[in-house]
Batch of 3 targets.
Target 1
Amino acid sequence: MTPADDPQARPRVTGDRELEILDATIDVLAEVGYDRLTMDAVASAAKASKATLYRLWSSKATLVLEALLVLKDPPAGELDTGTLRGDLLAMHCGHGRLTDPRLMAVFSSIITALGHDEEFASGFRERFIGPKIARSREIYRRAADRGELRDGVDVDLVSGALAGIMLHREFLLGLPPTVETITDVIDQIILPAALRPTLLQENA
């Protein structure tokens, strides 16, 4: 890893111009996919020189990964609605989340890269997916502290189910996520698996 690639070595975003480049990267990524994205294409879309891009990012993988990081969710504390159901809806619905068509287009564009670009896949799982898992665990931890969760629930298994179902419907069935579908999955699958039976009876 070079100093330019190390997230601790410099701020992720150093100014409006860098944000514009990262935003252009997302646009190109959503349009042509990771495999066909080139530094030339991003430079053209951002009206920047390729030398500028390579001065900040040593490779396509590091550029795309940093662009994805601007799409990260807010901290789990900002998703604290007071109930597991409310937190899950807040985490998965809205701009930059599963109901955002731009985000889903980006996910579609990187799926193949996760299988063959080791540099990108490793960074994506550590810096993009890792924080999402941590936020999800925090949401379930709060639910446990409130006494919402049933005994013995496997939080890591349950917490990944919602996104997994939505991505399956999107990429295999061609059914984009909607607030209504996400709500149904939460109410019919996630909450019955996670909540104490007495809470399910109260919400019935």
Target 2
Amino acid sequence: MSNSAMQGEPAELPDAARALVGAIGQTPLVEIPFAAEVAPGVRLFAKLESLNPSGSIKDRPVARMLVEAWRAGVFADGRHLLDSSSGNAGIAYAMLGAALGIGVTIVVPGNASRERLERMRAYGAELVVTDPIEGYDFALREAHTLAEREPERYWHCDQYANADNWRSHFVGTAEEILTQLHERGLPAPDTLVAGIGTGGTLTGCGRRLCLANPNIHIAVVIPETFPGIEGLKPFGAPGDIVPALLDATLINERIGVSSEQAVAMCRRLATLGLFVGPSSGAFVHAALRVAASGHYRCIVTFLNDTGERYVSTGMWGADT
């Protein structure tokens, strides 16, 4: 994570935690050449977030949220960290929780890939696995129920409402994007393509990039309801939970992407040496749809995690 993002790491952090936090961020901004095929002159860039210590973009907000909680002493009485996650944030929580020596309990939908579940368990996290048919929001509600039932045992991080989530992207991820584009001789992007899990990436990066370019176009990926795309919330059905920290006023366009389209793009990205998960494929698929309009010249998105996290799902099999 960038130094500005953490504004100095507390000296009392254990060595392992301090090293991990210091390794987060400053990920490469890679150019994806597919955009020029759909609209000449359009350039598409993506942050390669699999190079964070736990392998995903979620290291950024989780580190900020946990370090701030550690500073506040919320774990001093032995309470566990509690939150819901589709997997990537859960892995980051489990990794940093192990390094900090705190207990971690994650409520996770049962359709999370086996690799995600096994890695969280490897760090010693306790998992509460919910019925995948119940959907993304059921796990979120279950975490709230546990927190209310046992407040002495749990500190509920609540990444869907914790402002340190979006702030990590405002002062870290977005600043890196602007700096890396400037180093290429390019201005601030005119388009941002993101998704909504907690809303942190979209809100933090969107707010900062809007300051650099008030006319920026922000497009949001909307997955199908089931089987969905790990890490992304579907919207549109009655009762769907809208994350408390999501700044929906930033959104200019919503683009539906199916799991098949996301996987197909992941396979195409692999031919460039970019081995990424389905949410990354969905983002690039949507970015190319935006590029095809011909209205924009510099598009930025995110490659959220590594494709190794999804081998057990069959998405890389020759017969799928």
Target 3
Amino acid sequence: MDYSTLPTVSALSDCVTIAQLEDIKIVRVQHEKASAAISLHGGHVMSFIPTGKPDLIWMSKEAKFDGKAALRGGIPVCWPWFGRIAAPSHGFARTTQWELVEHRENDNGVIVELALYPSEETHDIWPYMFDARLIVEVSDELKVSLHVTNIDDQAWTFSGALHTYLNVGDILNTQTRGMGLEYIDSLQSGKVCQGEDTLILSDTIDRVYTQPEAQIVVEDANLARSITVENQGHNSAVLWNPWAEGAKGMGDMNDDGYQTMLCVESTVHANSLEEGMTLQPGESHVLATTISA
């Protein structure tokens, strides 16, 4: 999708505008180094295009922009939990409206800060007070950081992920390195397995790699580029592709969508809410991912 052609709601600066896409508003960044699109619904990065290069982020052609459903593709913010360990799946952050609180720009790029605050709706789902900020840095590379702070008078426990969908030319001609050897296989009921140094897919994958290296590299032969993913504040990296049968089973993914995407996620993984990361009152945590090609 060409986000530059969307109707402009308001111009905030030379580089930052608010655009409308069906029922959602998008923070649109257009800088000489790169362009990006960030949905206020879900605090969801939808696009990152280094100038003169293809998009690094994949979005489904069937994504729903009704302001209710989670967006399929991009970088969903899974918080305050990851997975189906509570309802709704992947938490409420990815389906809640975020607020644009700040944007800054200079010759090096643009920084956009969004905030998610507690509300009656979030309290009904998860009864704690929190301050969540998503900082998106758009330059030669993309850095997305989720800052969460416990502003309650009691400790709470969380998990989460920056669920990045990478855009690749052809998943059959893509190699991934740096994810580590040990993984928990969600397709085998959580069995702990040992993998190889290099991953080449020929079928669906849903793995929690427990010992990822500092950098995960995706060699995208068809688009002649190496995509580097560097995560921080995580305890694992999740790799996922639903393959043909999975894509057909999702109403918001085009049937051939699996052919051009690979999820490489910065994850705080836990098997239950109680087993997640605990923050005492006043404590903060930052979960981040940096993506470059």
